[in-house]
Write a structure and sequence with these properties.
The chain is mainly β. It is 2% helix and 42% strand. Strands 8-15-14-11 form a four-stranded mixed beta sheet, with no helix packed on it. The chain is rod-shaped and about 190 Å long. It is found in: Cell membrane.
């Protein structure tokens, strides 16, 4: 009997035979008490009564898959004689149960940059039906195409594995639906949430937004020389960046209130005559373990200012000449030098 059989269904049973005659062969039937079945008699064309099994209430194979009933035939003799037969009712399965996941939401946390093919989690759904009706297969639900390029689901085991690179900086959380389908076409659904945690896989990036070069050597202390943007795509300590300057450059770093912009300003007066240019390296290090670093090389040229007066090679020249020296004769050559550049360093005499 299929479990979808409606109450009231009737099932004819075999009639008993009694070799006696008369009242000794007149049979009545009895069925042991069972709430799911009752016994009814149907009179056939020959006047004999046919016992029939009547279904009293709906069946559920998943609760009870078989019944054993005892049918007793009693004759009309005195004393009465009886015979019994065992009636076994097997309840056959109908696909009346959908697959049910063990959880409505599966959550997993994993680090980025996992090797492709890594096992992320395993989902499980059960189906109370039997045979193919209880065989469950797993599939993606209605998910964006990008999910299928990053993850795979094994239709038999329910294992979800990585199929592409997971990058925290691109997406830190993935949410998608899974479907469990039995052999009869019924489905169950669940949600999968994958949280990607950050690894220190990005070095700080330094971008030079502006650079004032050359810088006049008479520029005052505090003059802005360069504006830089420092960025680390990681999060937490992995994205916290500290900067330092290497080299002998007379510059210092001023950090903006947000921390992502760095301003290089003059820390002391420049002197082109001591150094015509300054080369320095800005090094940015994050707080990861191990730390990652990024560098930027900056060259600042010093522009000359007329801050030096000409200087004679001697403070005093003494020349002795005879009184009859011809007019136009060279008496002495004086020399003055100016360490400035260009016109600022070109000396004229008067």
């Amino acid at each position: 009997v299929t479990e979808l059989t409606l109450p009231g269904a009737r099932f004819p049973l075999e009639m008993a035979r009694d070799a006696d005659v008369g009242s000794n062969s007149q049979l009545t039937y009895q069925l042991n008490s069972n709430p799911s079945f009752s016994l009814d008699m149907k009179e056939n064309a020959g006047g004999k009564k046919q016992p029939e099994l009547v279904l009293e209430r709906a069946l559920d194979r998943e609760k009870e898959n078989s019944f054993e009933l005892v049918l007793t035939a009693v004759d009309g003799g005195d004393p009465a004689r009886s015979g019994t037969v065992l009636v076994r009712v097997n309840v056959t399965d109908a696909n009346d149960n959908p697959p049910v996941f063990s959880k409505s939401v599966y959550e997993v946390q994993l680090v980025e940059n996992l090797p492709m093919g890594s096992l992320l989690l395993r989902v499980q759904a059960t189906d109370a039906d039997a045979g193919s009706n209880g065989h469950v297969s797993y599939f993606f639900g209605n998910v964006p195409g990008g999910i299928r390029t990053l993850f795979t689901v094994d239709s038999e085991s329910g294992e979800i594995r990585s199929a592409g690179p997971l990058d925290f900086e691109e997406t830190s959380k993935y949410i998608f639906g899974l479907e469990a389908r039995d052999g009869g076409g019924l489905t169950g659904h669940c949600e999968v949430q994958i949280d990607v945690t950050d690894e220190n896989d990005n070095a700080p990036e330094i971008t030079i937004l502006s650079l004032s070069s050359p810088v006049p050597e008479d520029a005052p202390v505090g003059t802005v020389v360069a504006l830089l943007k420092v960025r680390d795509r990681d999060s937490g300590e992995n994205g916290e960046v500290s900067c330092e300057l290497s080299g002998e450059a007379p510059l210092s770093i001023v950090t903006s209130s947000g921390g992502s912009y760095k301003v290089l300003v003059l820390a002391k007066a420049l002197d082109r005559e001591e150094a015509a240019f300054h080369e320095l390296v800005l090094r940015a290090s994050d707080g990861g373990d191990p730390a990652r670093t990024g560098t930027a090389r900056i060259r600042v040229t010093v522009l000359d200012a007329n801050d030096n007066a000409p200087v004679f090679s001697q403070a005093e020249y003494t020349v002795r000449v005879p009184e009859d020296v011809p007019v136009g004769s060279t008496l002495v050559t004086v020399t003055a030098t100016d360490p400035d550049e260009g016109l600022n360093g070109k000396v004229k005499y008067s």
